[in-house]
Amino acid sequence: MRDLTEDTITEAVIATMRDTKDARLAEILDSLVRHIHSFVREVGLTEEEWVRGVDFLTRTGQLCTPTRQEFILLSDVLGITMLVDALNNKRPAEATQNSVLGPFFRDDRPEHSDGADISEGLPGTPLFFEGQVVDREGTPVGGAAVDIWHSDAEGHYDVDVPDRTDPAMRGLIRTDQGGRFSFRSIRPASYPIPGDGTVGAFMSATGRSLMRPAHVHLMIEADGFQRVTTMLFPSDDLYLDADPVFGVKQSLVATYDDHAAGAGPCGGRTDEAYTLLRHTFVLEPLVAH
Ligand code: BEZ
Ligand code: FE
C-alpha cells in the first residue's frame, strides 16, 4: 500500500476495511468512501476548501447541546431527513404521511384530558382541534396516544418563550373508543428555523429562506400500528412551497377554518373569532418482519 495515486487510493482505502465483521456496516462504509472520493474528485476540492469544510463541520458539532442539534438541522435542510423518512415509511396515499419531527418535541409533556385548553393562557386566535384516528378500513382506533406540540402566535415554542418554564401548547391526549380526540389552543404562526449557527450561514450563502409554514405537530402511537410523526399546515400559508426542511406534503395541507365569534365547537362559546381544524388520521398496520 505505497505510492498511491488519485486513481488507486479509493480501492486502497476500501481494502483496509475488508475485515469489517458487520456486513451492513461494511456495505455502508464501502459506499460512503466511494461517494466521498468521487465528490472530492468531481469538484476538484482545493486544500483551502477542505480546511473550510472541516471547520464548518467542527463548528456544527460544537453547537450541539442536549437541546440543540445542529447536525440534525443540517440533515433537515439538505433534505436527508425527509429522504430517510421516505425510504423507511412508504405508505399508501390514503394513510397519513410523515413529516419531520423537528427539535421541539419534548417527552416530559403533560397528559391532558379530551377537550382541554393546552394554550396555558397564551394570547392568540383560539384554535379548536377535532381529530379522529382510524385504521385503513375506517374503524376507529381507541386508546391511541396523540402527542401535540406547536408554536404560539409569534412563532415561538414554549421552550423559547422568555420566562416560561412550564410546558404550553403541547401535551398527550388519548383517543376515546370512537377514535376521537379534541383540544383547544391558539393558532400557530410560521417561524424561522434557527439561523444563528452553521446552518444559518449555509442558508444565507445559498439564498434560502429560513421560514417554515405554520403547523401543528402530531405524533400518534397505537398498538399494532406504525407510529405517525406528522404535522398539519394551513392551506393559505405563504411558505408552503419554500419549506426549508422539505416537510410539506399536499395531504398534510389542511383547512384552518376561520369563524366569527359566537357559538364555538364542542357546544362552547367564544367571544373572539376562532379557527376550527378537523382532521382524520389513517394509521397503517405494523409491517410484519
Ligand atoms: C419544526 O417544525 O419544529 C422544525 C422542524 C425542522 C427543523 C426546525 C424546526
Ligand atoms: Fe415546528
Task: Sum this structure up briefly.
This protein is of the alpha+beta class. It has helices at residues 9-16, 23-43, 47-62, 70-77, 80-88, 198-205; strands spanning 126-135, 145-150, 170-174, 180-186, 191-192, 211-212, 216-221, 228-234, 253-254, 257-259, 262-263, 269-270, 274-283.
Decide which structural class fits the backbone.
alpha+beta
Ligand catalogue: benzoic acid, fe (iii) ion
The CATH level-2 architecture of the largest domain is identified as: Sandwich
Distance, first to last CA:
43 Å
Per CATH, the superfamily of the largest domain is: Aromatic compound dioxygenase
Can you count the beta strands?
A: 13
**Overall 3D geometry?**
globular
| H/E topology pattern | HHHHHEEEEEHEEEEEEEE
Helix content: 10-25%
Number of domains: 2
* Binned strand content: 15-25%
Secondary-structure topology with pairs:
Elements: H1 9-16, H2 23-43, H3 47-62, H4 70-77, H5 80-88, E1 126-135, E2 145-150, E3 170-174, E4 180-186, E5 191-192, H6 198-205, E6 211-212, E7 216-221, E8 228-234, E9 253-254, E10 257-259, E11 262-263, E12 269-270, E13 274-283
Parallel strand pairs: 1-13, 8-9
Antiparallel strand pairs: 1-4, 2-3, 2-7, 5-6, 7-8, 10-13, 11-12
Helix pairs in contact: 1-2
The chain binds benzoic acid and fe (iii) ion (FE).
